[in-house]
Design brief:
Elements: E1 12-15, E2 24-31, E3 36-39, E4 44-49, E5 52-54, E6 64-66, E7 69-74, E8 77-78, E9 82-84, E10 95-102, E11 105-112
Antiparallel strand pairs: 1-2, 1-9, 2-3, 3-8, 4-7, 5-6, 10-11
The protein binds zinc ion (ZN).
C-alpha cells in the first residue's frame, strides 16, 4: 500500500534515526513514489572524486583536468525516519489530517497533534 506522504517539499522535519538523529532541516525534495525525502544539509554523503584528464579530440592545447575533491551531497531519507516539525509549536509532531469543506470543496489539512494548529494554510 502506497500511503500518501505526509511530508512535502518546504516542510521542516526532524531526523529520527541515523547519524543525523535529532537534527532538523528543510525538505528540498519529496519523492512520493519512493517514499523518500531529501533534507537540506542532512544525511550528507561524501563523494570523492579524483582529478581526471578530459578527453579532448580537438588536439588543441594541453590536457584539461576536471577538478578533484570531496563533494558532499544530501542523500534521500526514508519518510519513516523523519518527523514533521510543527511550524507553530516548533516540535516534531505526529500529524492528523482534518477534512474541511471550503466553498463546497473538500480540503485535507494536516494538523499538529500537539497543539492542534493547522500546518497547511
Ligand atoms: Zn504544533
Amino acid at each position: 500500500m502506497a500511503a500518501a506522504m505526509k511530508i512535502k517539499k518546504g516542510d521542516t522535519v526532524q531526523v529520527l534515526s541515523g547519524k543525523d538523529r535529532g537534527k532538523q532541516g528543510r525538505v528540498i525534495e519529496a519523492r512520493p513514489s519512493e517514499g523518500r525525502v531529501i533534507v537540506e544539509n542532512l544525511n550528507l554523503v561524501k563523494r570523492h572524486r579524483k582529478p581526471a584528464p578530459v578527453r579532448d579530440t580537438s588536439r588543441m592545447g594541453g590536457a584539461q583536468m576536471t577538478p578533484g575533491g570531496i563533494f558532499e551531497k544530501p542523500s534521500p531519507l526514508d519518510v519513516s525516519n523523519v518527523m514533521l516539525v510543527c511550524p507553530t509549536c516548533k516540535q516534531a509532531s505526529r500529524t492528523a489530517v482534518h477534512v474541511k469543506e471550503i466553498k463546497g470543496t473538500t480540503v485535507r489539512v494536516r494538523c499538529c497533534k500537539r497543539c492542534n494548529e493547522e500546518i497547511d494554510r
